[in-house]
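User: My instructor asked us to take a sequence, write out its structure as tokens, and then describe one feature of it. I'm not sure where to start. Here is the sequence I was given:
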Amino acid sequence: MKRRHLLQAACAAVALPRLATAQSYPSKPIRYIVPVAAGGGNDMIARVVTERWGALLGQPFVVDNQSGGGGVIASQTTAHAAPDGYTLMQGYVATHGTTPATRHIPYDPIKQFTPIGMIGATPNVLVVNAGLPVQTVKEFIDYVKRNPGKVSYGSAGIGSLTHLTMELLKQETGTFVLHVPYRGIAPAINDLLGGQTQAMFPGLAAALPHLRSGRMRALAVTGKSRSAQLKDVPTMQEVGFKGFDAMQWYGSLGPAGIAADVVKRLNDTQVAVLKSPDLSEKLSAEAVEPWPMSPQQFGDYIRAEVARWTALAKARNIRLEE
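Assistant: Let's start with the prediction itself. The structure tokens for your sequence are:
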């Protein structure tokens, strides 16, 4: 009996600090690692969301930009941080989707992270140079087949979402379109506008100014529903490509092992932020639609992304060796 009481007391002593931590969380600022340099769309999304998120939690987020290695540096830093809820990161389709699918990386995008929640996503859009004589996806595919070896497309680089999305279309249609990789989306768009390449699958935010100017033409968007900013443009699914769902997404994660009650508090407050009307207006600058998910849903989404892009990369022999 005495021994049992001692064991119960010992268990209680171990449990108390964890309980106290959960009840008082957060008691200090939260570090939020963003895997890109300050100033871009990814960074803007992080700052807009964390400003409101911190206000709900009662503690500020400190944004820490760690660019380099296609998000590898930021991901490693997060994966090796203490799982106390005070270090999070903004993962996105590259860090937890396309990069693990196409490169050997020093972190496990699933096992080494705790999903907190999806923030939002923007579609990719199949665009062509305005001078190309096609108005629909079907006409584009027919044009490619009639002009073998004469159509090329640009991307933001080998292994990028802009690359893999077009490779997915090529796989599903059995067509050949020459890949021209660039160092970033801006030079790829410039050459499309100049006619050096004929097609692309950029993110919607990057494409919008040129679509509005009439210098490029949108044929279809990815995703399960039409974009609010391109209401007249059909989805790939609408034009016959079932399950064609390549999205530029953003979400929050922490290192593996964060306590479930801390994760719940973080997710509950993040979802509340994402449901505020003014946030949608702020994120529309990057054509991002808020997309709240539970931690479980977000974790499942990441697993599906890694599996899908890994299968495509293998099938298309896309691999970056470093």
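For the description part of your assignment, you could build on this observation: The domain at 125-221 is CATH 3.40.190.10 (D-Maltodextrin-Binding Protein; domain 2). Try explaining in your own words what that tells you about the chain.
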